[in-house]
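Hello K.,

You asked for the raw outputs rather than the summary table, so here they are, unedited. I folded two proteins back to back in the same session to keep the settings identical. This is the first:
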Amino acid sequence: MVVYVEYDVECPCSDGTVLRADVYRPAGQGIYPVLLLRLPYDKSNRHYYKGYLDVPRMVAAGYVVILQDVRGRYASDGTYYPFVYERKDGYEAVEWAAALPYANGKVGMFGMSYHGYTQLAAAAETPPSLYAIAPVMAIADGWVDMVQDETMPFDQGSLATWALESILPDQLKRQDRDKELERAHAYIDELPFRLHDQPIREWAPIKKTVPNSFYFDFVNRQITEQTIQQVDVREKLKHIHIPALFIGGWFDSLLGQTLGAYQQFGGKRMLWIGPWTHSNLDGWAGDVFFEHATSPLGVDQLKDLTDLHIKWFGHWLKDKPLNIEKPVHVYHMGKRRWDGQERWPPNNAGISRYHLNHHENTSLQNSVRTLEKKKPETNQTDQCPRNPAAPFPTRGGNLLMAGHGAGMFEQGDLHEREDALVFTTQPLDIPLEVLGTIAANVWVSSDSPLLDLFLQVSDVTPDGKVYNVVDTFIRRTVDDRGRPRHVQVDLTPTSYRFGKGHAIRLAIAGSNAPRFDVNQNNGTTSRTATGGVPANDILYYGGQYPSSLSIPIR
């Protein structure tokens, strides 16, 4: 099919700002439903034309496809500030698209990550011409992990990577600041190493290029509560009644927010979760490859994600049969196959609980830390040192950070560090099928004003390789130093199979850097300060402190 393309078509906003979009449509006469993507990135990049979705195929299926620069980005006029203008601009863009001479008045929205948020933000304003959305790896609150105080973890690796790589170059180019743009590109080349620079509020790659950047507003939390509430559309989701297709990845950095938005959404909804990272949907998640990750897709054997989108919008914008039986579709890692479910969170067969324990190994003259079904009867403790000068390093998992791959990677050498406590089951007699959210219940104390905990569950293969499956990182204030406190925390949701002969491992450490800011153990973190001092955390288990891992099983 011949595709007709118009570049930088103008969309005038009510305040006089002009947004611009590339419009792809069937050649010749005719009117069609519109599929709209609103993004802050380079819409001419092939990734947005023929990447995770194939725009020519969507046009061939009978749609006008519009890729629009958001306010203040690339061809659009105005000033960019993350997330702030997307609700009103989104409403106006939808109604503009619906009124185009080749549009039939029905609009759907699609896109991933930031442009997942632009869909939810527009939908929160209930534009009458918006009939369906398809948020992929999306967020409903763009600042949820970025504008909290130092008593909460600060995901500085993600923010720094996004601000420097994705936002800064166009910002400088628009201002004709060639010297600073050249400097920014040099910083981008150094970014994986620059993520360790402290303190974050003095971060040179931004400070020496755009010292008044929104980046420092986030770091210093210099944003009004009114603005924060405007950006957060989570509560509004329950009042949205158009249908939504939510798509997430087991190793996506935004999986928790995607699932949260799905669960709060008030309209008809469908959920798909694949073995994907935020930047890779071809089946590779770190060092592990998952067959049939995108083709054929699901138990219905769809061709790919483009086929899924065409079917979804065909149902809601063209009244075609959907022909997809289940409302929830998850890729079961371990079995390397798709499963259909009736709901999320799933109905599980039960919980398998493993208690933390250790045994003295007299032959090796050391302790062996274990995970066991039986709770130890006596109180036991382990000391976990935390040194801000040498924090426990980030490797794999759900992240989006320069120089650090997301997904599953071998962890064995990290688990040998003295600042990691590692507990492992015996090899499993039968496979353990996991679906849902693994939870940890631990008793800990700290001599630091802030307690940081990184918890990671891994799969230990029969040949001794160790691959991360899920993890989490939390921070708590310490009111009574040295006194045990109970911490209950959920790790990342998953669908995974620990095979026969494999073992389950829990690793506990006191940091996860450079993804998160580093606790200086004096009431501050690397977000604002340096020069920290070592501290010790104490882990308690057994007896009156039944620290354990709870695993939801099929």
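The second followed immediately with the same parameters:
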Amino acid sequence: MIEKRYVQKGAVRAGFARRTEGTTMHWQSAFLACALIGSGSLATAQAEPAQRFRLADWEVEQAIPRPPLDAVGPVAARDFGLEAFPPSPILAEAPNADDEAPETARAPEVPQPTEADFAAIPDDPPSLLEEGQPDPAITVERVAQQLRIILARPGGDRALQQQLNPFYAGRGYQPLFVRDGVVAERGQAALTRLGQAGEDGLDPAAYRIQLPTGPRTAESVARLELALARAVALYASHASGGRTDPKRLSGYFDVSPPRIETTAALESVARAENVTAAIDGFNPPHPGFRRLRAKLVEMRGERREMTTTEATRRHALRERDLIANLERWRWLPRQLGETHIWVNSTEAQVNVVQGTQVVHSTRAVVGRPETQTPVFSDAMSFIVLNPSWHVPISIVRRSMLGPASRNGGGYFARRGIQVTQGGRVVDASTINWASANVGRYTFRQPPGTANALGRMKFMFPNRHAIYLHDTPSRGDFGRSNRTLSNGCVRVQNPEELAALLLGIALPGENWTIGRMRSLYGGGERSVRFRQAIPIHLVYFTMTVDSTGALVELPDVYGHNARVRAALSGGRG
């Protein structure tokens, strides 16, 4: 039995943060084992004797059943014995960054406990049972009271309150992970699953919690509850959205990771019959992620059996490369689309996926390292036959002005490029391109056999002006290194791809290759889909093929090294 020690009431009234020397709480780093984790079955919670535990008046008032809101008039301050309602410490006036002028309306004021109310709460006596054993005297009500104090008290930890108060207020501050003064079965399952975070390509150390030593009280158990909740919420954020900010790593990453927020994560765990499955579900659901994660577990098992330092080091580097790939899986939408288009720049390939099966695959040419194909998701909505090429000014400046300046304005005419100004075609040979303001002109290559876009382009309008297209330069598809374009994706077999996509997007309209060819040679013609098809331009240097083998691809843009360095704190 531990010595009976109580917190002095004067210390409680002075601020609840101070404790006498004999009862000061110290925290130690632990993960799965602690004196507060009970063994055996959980004891049934028992009511605290009235002389040892008493609800404050304001808590009694809140516990009284109320009639429906539409059956009573508005409450007034006098209903609570107050001259006026105090301002809310949680819902404060804040500027709205999305508006031109700051938001001036306050959130509706609600009655909040005062310092006097908190001071009237009776002492929180320590447990009289041996450490590690359930104590029915540390009731759900006592722990809920302490959670309310920690999360709603003015002057408390604002970050903690803002993160966790919405969830706990919504459940009347009832604890989720503890019961009878110890970690409950749900909490133990959460701790065990968080301890396996390394198998997900995450860092288990990030989810370790600080557990208290010393006298066990409802307050210390409440803080244990909050530590567990914070760890689960952090894991959910990392597992669903990654540990990096992709837009800070590269301007070519145009993604918004589907990060699961704190309240949604904890509500999911609270509803779950299987806590382990709920926490695992924070990770991406995609089969490609799951297969790659299984490879990480397999590789770590292999490394433990290695006998030389050099072999172990090389294997560890490969594991870090794989973890960087898992990170990028977390940037993708949770739903890729039952049918979707998948363009992986590292393998320069376009795949059409239905369900989990690749139903069409064709080689592609993607952007050069200096003009990369960006990473983003969108939806393809139409195909243009006999396209014109509206040459981007960036390409004109980078690739055409120099030759035009050296060889005269005939450079554009020889390539069939029309130059217009103010909507009128001009004679490019009369312009001094060495000094011309190129931004005043537009450049267009009309449809034809020499058109840079070939016979068709596949459109998913986006801010990068990126699309898939045919090309007259067929020889490039035979190369092993196909990072050769200005950013758009050239397709080796565009007719087969178009016929498949049109059959999916326009069923019953008989868009065969023969029908498309009958339309070649005329003006532009757009064929719009009835339903857009998701397309994902991605960057993975490690994948698992249909035989279960790990495929390693070149880091053509250096993205994997960049992500790997960010995950390891810049150490590469």
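The two ends are 52 Å apart (CA to CA).

Happy to rerun anything if the numbers look odd on your end.

Regards,
P.
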